[in-house]
Amino acid sequence: MSAASVYKALGDPIRLEIVRRLASCNSSTLGELSQDLGVSRQGARKQIQVLVSAQLVHLTQCGRITEARLDHATLQQAQQHLDQLGKLWDQRLQALKDFAESHDNDT
After folding, report:
1. Could you tell me which residues come within 8 angstroms of residue 2 by beta carbon, excluding any fewer than 6 positions away?
2. Which residues form the HTH arsR-type domain (predicted)?
């Protein structure tokens, strides 16, 4: 899993909604997702395949039913990556604030 593929997959509103739904209900069939999202079954499958490629979703086939489950570990890795970026930006903003305040005192 690369962080870029995860964020690219989450960049689409329909795929993001699929992840939200799977996070709230743990699993869902392809038919349920397509009905809930108002897209065709084939359209839902296409969007889910992008999530599968990013390792955000796992599919299980049981007869004619395809069940999708969220991969929480991949989502947690993406969250950790965002947390690290957030800390970096906090440090940079604090350094900028310190610099600005030190120059305010000079004037």
Report:
1. none
2. 1-97
